Amino acid sequence: MRKTFLFMDTIVNKVDAKGRVSLPSDYRAIVKELSTEIVCYRSLTSPCIEGCAEELLEKIAADMETSLDFFSQTQDDLTNLIFGDARRFSFDSTGRILLSEKLLKHAQITDTAVFVGKGRKFQIWNPENWAKEEKRIRQEIMKNRPSLSMKGGTNR
Amino acid sequence: MRKTFLFMDTIVNKVDAKGRVSLPSDYRAIVKELSTEIVCYRSLTSPCIEGCAEELLEKIAADMETSLDFFSQTQDDLTNLIFGDARRFSFDSTGRILLSEKLLKHAQITDTAVFVGKGRKFQIWNPENWAKEEKRIRQEIMKNRPSLSMKGGTNR
DNA sequence: AAAAATCCCATGTTATACCATAAGAGTAAG
DNA sequence: CTTACTCTTATGGTATAACATGGGATTTTT
After folding, report:
1. Which protein residues have their Cβ less than 7 angstroms from some atom of strand D?
2. Chain A: residue whose CA lies nearest to B100
């Protein structure tokens, strides 16, 4: 029935002493709908955790297979890094995943996690870091607004 | 059968204490017709809520996926901004959606909401703000088309 | 055996589905 | 042209289901 699967919204959830966090229910719905799994890895560019449906990584792998020439060496390396770091995180009957020490440390998350939707992907941030990052992005986007409105042209 | 999907007209509805508003029936018809969902987010440029069919965001996500710019910084920022703020708002059997505190605050809406159609998108305004905005827009148009205003003025 | 991971139950909170009434818009009959 | 009726829509209130989260029990790993 649902044809779309977009990770959206910004949701704040508690992380308990064991490292458990509720995956936002919308995200869980996507996983169920696609009968896939959530995959997480350390972001290559930011102090946050990045996640997506396992499906997406398969798509990327397939793309690399068929169009190696179009990927630069750098992108190839980056992709390797992600695959090397990524792991499945399945949620229990109450909808929680258990984040690993490695990921929590990289994102500096202790007791609160902020889930930020990115369409096909999502990110998990420490609240303070996300507040700063959001501010930075808004300033950055406003600076480059002309090009943004150009991109809005895809709306038609 | 022709599938039209243009958000039009200006409709004023009450917002109750819980933040519930009736989605204009025309809008609901569009959602049903396209079997999609309504997605809302804070306008980047105005103190109002902006909404569209989820389909539209899906298109944007698809564009980004195929752009090969999987690791571009700008794209990263954009997806955070768009999808991080957007959320699905499905309506109940009586046609109401529950607007979030974040959105209501951004648009300064308390007890009344004005829905303004914009084609593929629509906006939700606080009544006073919308009155000002509409006035501003009309003045702007008259400024840029003096000949039009002369014609209308003398003849009627 | 100790530690870690997974599962299961309990609770407060919140969102959503449902019911009921009121208000209009439109239609048909008088 | 007016009145009565029907149907859709808007809105208030309430009940129910879903969710996040704490705590503990059970299983698996090492």
Report:
1. A 11-14, 16, 18, 21-25, 28-29, 94-96; B 11, 13-14, 16-17, 21-25, 29, 94-96
2. A9
Give me the percent of chain B exceeding a pLDDT of 90. Answer: 64
Q: Between the CA of B97 and the C1' of C16, what is the distance in angstroms? A: 10
The helix or strand, by DSSP H or E, that contains position B124, with its residue range, turns out to be strand B121-125
CA separation for the pair A57, A86 (Å, rounded): 10
Q: How many CB atoms lie within 10 A of CB B125?
A: 26
Largest pairwise CA distance in chain A? 48
Q: What confidence tier does A80 reach under pLDDT thresholds 50, 70, 90?
A: confident
Q: What is the pLDDT of residues B74-98, one digit of tens each?
A: 888 988 999 999 999 999 889 999 9
Minimum-distance nucleotide, CA of B18 to C1': C15
CATH superfamily of the domain spanning B10-144: Transcriptional regulator MraZ domain (3.40.1550.20)
> In which residue are the tokens 């290559």 written?
A44
Provide the residue ranges of all domains of chain B, joining segments of one domain with +.
Answer: 10-144
- Residues listed for chain A: 156
Token reading at A88:
């499945």
